[in-house]
Amino acid sequence: MLDPRVFQRVRKNPAAVLSAVFLAFMVLACVAGPFFMPSALGEPGPNQYAPPSWEHPFGTDLNGRDLLYRVLTGGRISLLVGLCGAVVSLFIGTAWGLVAGYAGGRTDALMMRFVDILYSVPRLIFILIAINAFNAGLQEWANREGLEWRVESSRIAILILTLGFIEWLTMARIVRGQVLSLKERQFVTAARALGQSHVKILTRHLLPNLAGIILVYLTLTIPAVIIDESFLSFLGLGIQAPQASWGSLLADGAGAINPVRSFWWLLVFPAASMALALLALNFLGDALRDAFDSKAR
Amino acid sequence: MLALLSKRLVSLLVVLFCVVSITFLLIRASPGGPFDGERKIPEAIEKQLLAKYKLDGTLWQQYTGYIGDLLRGDLRLSTKYRNRSVNEILAQTLPVTLALGGAAFLLATFAGVWIGTLAAMYRHTWRDFGAMFLALAAISLPSYIIGPLLILVFALTLGWLPAGGWGGFSHLILPALTLAAPAAAVIARLMRGSMVETLQMDFVRTARAKGLKESTVVYRHALRIAILPVVSYLGPLAAHLLTGSIVVETVFNIPGAGGFFVHSILNRDGFLLGGMVIVYCAMLVFFNLLVDLAYGFLDPRIKSHA
Lengths: 297, 306
Hints:
The complex is a heterodimer of chains A (297) and B (306). Chain A is an all-alpha fold and 297 residues long. Chain A contains 11 helices and no strands. Chain A is globular. Chain B has one domain (1-306): MetI-like (MetI-like fold), CATH 1.10.3720. Chain B has helices at residues 2-29, 43-52, 59-71, 86-121, 126-140, 143-157, 170-198, 202-209, 214-226, 228-251, 257-266, 270-298. The longest helix of chain B has 36 residues, at 86-121. The radius of gyration of chain B is 24 Å and the shape is elongated. Chain B starts with a helix and ends in an 8-residue tail after the last helix. At the A-B interface, helix 5, helix 9, helix 10 and helix 11 of A face helix 1, helix 5, helix 6, helix 10 and helix 11 of B.
């Protein structure tokens, strides 16, 4: 159960409040913003590499597309992948940690050894290999079924699932640690004495007590997944053109600066948007974690 | 010590074996082969190609054959860079990656320890807050944001340093800085925490009571104890630098192993990817082992627990 004192403590932290307000603004802008802009802004136009102006606040890119529109729609995908990926990791990690911690003994040792092994595999390398295999499978499937139009949404789904399946390890460890101490508490003994089933004890008694810590690590997993996604998109393995995410926009921007002519706005605006979002998420997550920690002390 | 060593070596082998198997299966199970191109290759030639690169036979035969070759130290031929073996490519590119990683390692360690110590000495002042804010920023931001921005400012606008490539010392500065920034930030945070704790210990009070200069107290006495958490982070740090260099090398156009890593995936060059994965993972586990040993060496009390 969430302790209201935690939120009071967070509210006293100006950096966290500012971050929360900024994040709300950013999500609103990315989700709703493009609806209020003419969709022609996202289409190729004659106005190539226009620097920032009143008409195009962030300038335009190689194909004459408005960069503000692209940053907003790209942010939509980045935030969507970050949130959904984190939720996937939350489900897997929580389930894994709950079962391992509650079962204890040999099951626990085996399950956590598995987590240890996955931990020692370098994460980015694992992501690279997994996404490569899935992307090839997706392309083959699309070619066979003639479903080219579905590839874009499937690619996002694959990103979400893959990243979620890789980022759950920390969550599993934390949940297990909490369950180990919670299951010795008297209310669990009481529930067991009343003859409640294991499933009921897990879902009705243990899970509600874990809600707080799970929420904290959800806020910290979102930026991690956003970074993973943009890492892949930056290397050209994630979101593919003409779709964009912050990572692929950054890759375009990094390619557009050179000693001859540097189109700096293509780099600076996507970088700033993503940097501010990541900073805000981390500030908020840190503040939440501190608020919970001081409760424990 | 020997027991620890052998235990860690066994776990190293287990991890490597798992990683190699997963990599191999994921590559071979995914559809599409390394020779799929615009044009269809005649069947007879494709058969010969597959035989040359030992890609014929059932999946199980391929797998056992590959493991056997690996045990003999043969990482096989690259399917993209024809007639070059993976061993050869690694021998050419790894020194570059290691030079970059080594520079970043030194930079991150020294800068991190120094900044963290200063932040602890000037706790709750603007220097402390400023340093810790910068540290959180450096941790939160991936290198493909920091790197291009550094290029934009220092190479293109100011023109002080080259924007990319590999050659002299000047080529090393920006990529090493990009690679080291988040690691230095983590170390600075660790260092600050442990230094704050150490400065409250009795022996520090004694040293101050003797009338020693504050700098002597901090650098000669407190630092030796406070640095221990940093040492235990050096293993993960090596991992961070190695995987981080994949992106940094792409950003700065450095001919290291990281670029080949990415291209081996894009080109479906399975054996090159496999070789990269093996070498990277082996180095990671090896550095962790090294750190464990160093830790026991620095603080003899730890040996008994290990």
